[in-house]
Design goal:
Layout lengths: L1 E8 L3 H8 L2 H10 L3 E4 L11 E8 L2 E13 L3 E7 L3 E13 L2 E12 L2 H12 L1 H28 L1
Antiparallel strand pairs: 1-7, 2-3, 3-4, 4-5, 5-6, 6-7
Length: about 160
């Protein structure tokens, strides 16, 4: 199943890319939400090959996800591939500079089931795909608002 959303952000592409690739910030956020996160690679600089193991509870069960950075094209694109016991997931962010201070962010998610149970769950999710897409678009708008606010705060400082 594929989902995608697009949002225009009032901030330069470099600023948006930096926010999307704030790996240490994401790690701290996951820890605050109760997840365990462990870096699996030893790469000193960001780029393909970076890898993390995430452990968290979701829907009453312990989940383990291995996420690998597979695409790194600053400031235009970044992508991850994640594996869990039930799914393979591709997550991609593409950035298009509309002007020096405006960026279009496109988010694409593709989930592929690895088990029969996952296939059944994904089929039921397809029935509510419009609602999922709407929620994804709303969350992307919230994230864009936060990025714009940070950009304005940094620009004013």
């Amino acid at each position: 199943m594929k989902l995608s959303a697009r949002e225009d952000i009032e901030a330069p592409a470099q600023h948006v890319f930096a926010a999307l690739t704030d790996f240490e910030g994401f790690e701290r956020g996951a820890l605050r939400r109760g997840a365990e996160i462990r870096r699996l690679d030893q790469h000193p600089a960001p780029g393909p090959g970076m890898s993390w193991e995430l452990r968290f509870r979701w829907r009453g069960r312990q989940r383990v996800v291995i996420a690998d950075l597979v695409r790194w094209e600053p400031p235009a694109a970044v992508g991850w591939r994640a594996e869990s016991s039930g799914y393979d997931l591709d997550l991609g962010f593409s950035l298009v500079e509309l002007s020096p201070r405006r960026t279009r962010l496109t988010v694409e998610i593709e989930a592929r089931p690895r088990t029969l149970a996952a296939r059944i769950l994904l089929q039921s999710m397809k029935l509510g795909k419009a609602k999922l897409t709407r929620k994804m678009q709303q969350r992307l708008r919230q994230a864009a608002d936060e990025l714009e606010e940070r950009w304005r705060a940094e620009g004013a400082a």
